[in-house]
Amino acid sequence: MAKGKIKVNTENIFPIIKKFLYSDHEIFLRELIANATDATKKLHALASMGDFKGEIGDDTIEIILDKKAKTITVSDKGIGMSQEEVKKYINQIAFSGAEEFVNKFKDQAESSNIIGKFGLGFYSSFMVAERVEIISKNYKDEEASHWECDGSPEYSLKAGNKETRGTDIILHIAEDSTEFLEEARINNLLTKYCKFMPVAIKFGQKSEWVDNKEGKKDKDGNVEKEEVKVDNVVNNPSPAWTKAPSSLDDEDYKSFYRELYPMNFEDPLFHIHLNVDYPFNLTGILYFPKIKPNMEVQKDKIQLYSRQVFITDSVEGIVPDFLTLLHGVIDSPDIPLNVSRSYLQSDGAVKKIASHISKKVSDKLEELFKKDRADFESKWDDIKVFIEYGMLSDDKFFERAQKFALYKTTTGKYYTLDELKETIKPAQTDKDDKLVVLYANDVDGQHSYIESATNKGYEVIVLDSPLTAHLVGKLEQTLENSTFVRIDADTIDKLIDKNEEIPSKLSDEEKEKLKPVIEDVVEKSKFNVQFESMNETDQPMTIVQPEFMRRMKDMSAVGGGMNMFGGAMPDSYNLVVNVNHPVISKMLAEKDADLQKQIAKQTADLALLSQNMLKGEELTNFIKRSIELI
């Protein structure tokens, strides 16, 4: 058996770095600023441990763009490097100075804030630069160093002329990357990747209007303003999620939300502040936005950070899918990332984090429900789609949601599932002792059906989200010996069958005589004509859509249903004829065939109109016919 060491061809390593190290070349700026941040945090750590006795002073990181010279400089006032340290940390690819520092001082809490891990971040500069210089002087005030490389394995290292502590990384931008010499491009990258880095970052200057120094006043007695130039600090080093929840109030959380989403002019409904240190480190703030019933919301609104360094806004895998409807920030150094930090590596810790976040969200919702139920009810319509989505996609969340998920009735009352069961049980239990939960998905369009139900003392709940068909199936599994039926699935007496027989005024022969007359005025392929004995006060004809077929169609529309028709499941309705209504008796008694047909057509059209199913030419003809009858 032969053993040996795999050799890396240094001649080929730089082309690989330039083309494949990171998925997006713009990452170079984030990586260089992350290194500068580490250098600064290391200095603070050494000072707190007593290993650095000097004055830290201004530790702002500065980004300098020189379009004429075609350079970008990242300058810090951190720990710096001697020539020996440059050899150690720069000339050895994938040797992480940050990781070495953390290991050296692993028992010191201050070392935990260091960002670097892989020792490759600096080399991202060669994705956009044809030549890179490092000019550095370390905190021990040793001789400065000046390193230079043109993207080949050859480099030069000599004494530098830098007088102050810190490091300057100078990128001589390549011809194929001149987009990064535009101020707007750099501004966008700083906003995207460095908005909350823990050390102040300066990029040029900006104008501000302040009171004039002489105190001059205008004609109204107000102090006149004058324009001054100030440093343009592009980041907030102490964002809200890094602070203790006890130190923040509601306005602080709203202000941070506006900082995250400056173009969103609606305040969130409420928030959750995550602050976990065991069994993993996790901080962050999640916001509940108003969610429209049609779920037209933009995902990718949760931003993932690692020690305040932006990683991605694609957080699938870190949070359960239904939580991606939320907005906010999650920050965890324990989330396993690949070298580019762009993708998650598969890891059991990620599942634990996702599970914990789901539990924290459900705990917060339960807390809000118990603390102020009236306020929670007032927000229900804005969050119910989110909660329904969670109940369907996460079994543990479904179990927890039983404590706070609400069901609103058409009369504006709110019940939990247990409360609803106890409320409707006396009136809405059928002849087989099964509990029947009636629901509507269009309160206005189904008004006549709802009125019939409420006249009998029934409660009708409102389930009007795209997820309703799936949700009722899940709820039926939870609520034993129960069924959910939409209010227009059948006539009111059949919805909750009490086995109460109403005598029919028509014989079977009379029904058979009328059936072809009625079938002739509706689409036979769409409507199935049925005769039922109902109260005289009920509608002469009613259109209902059987629960099973309609539910399958609804489920197919949002995925997961029995799509037996390849996505084109046809509509199927029953046209129920009330044999005890006077209009039906009149229709039967009419000897004039044309007039009989006219009565049938007018009555059927009224049923269609009540369901908003009469349109186009048919609606026009109905109006003309109604005027003639008047």
UniProtKB/TrEMBL annotation:
Which residues does the annotation say bind ATP?
A: E31, N35, D76, M81, S96, G97, T167, R341
Q: Does the keyword Transit peptide apply?
A: no
The record's Gene3D superfamilies line, in alphabetical order, gives: 3.30.230.80, 3.40.50.11260, Heat shock protein 90, C-terminal domain, Histidine kinase-like ATPase, C-terminal domain
Give the GO molecular function terms: ATP binding; ATP hydrolysis activity; ATP-dependent protein folding chaperone; unfolded protein binding
Keywords of the record, alphabetical order, are: ATP-binding, Chaperone, Cytoplasm, Nucleotide-binding, Stress response
CDD domains documented for this protein: HATPase_Hsp90-like
Q: In this record, what's one Pfam family?
A: HSP90
> What family is this protein classified in?
Belongs to the heat shock protein 90 family.
NCBIfam families per record: PRK05218.1
Q: What is this protein called?
A: Chaperone protein HtpG
* Source species: Vicingus serpentipes
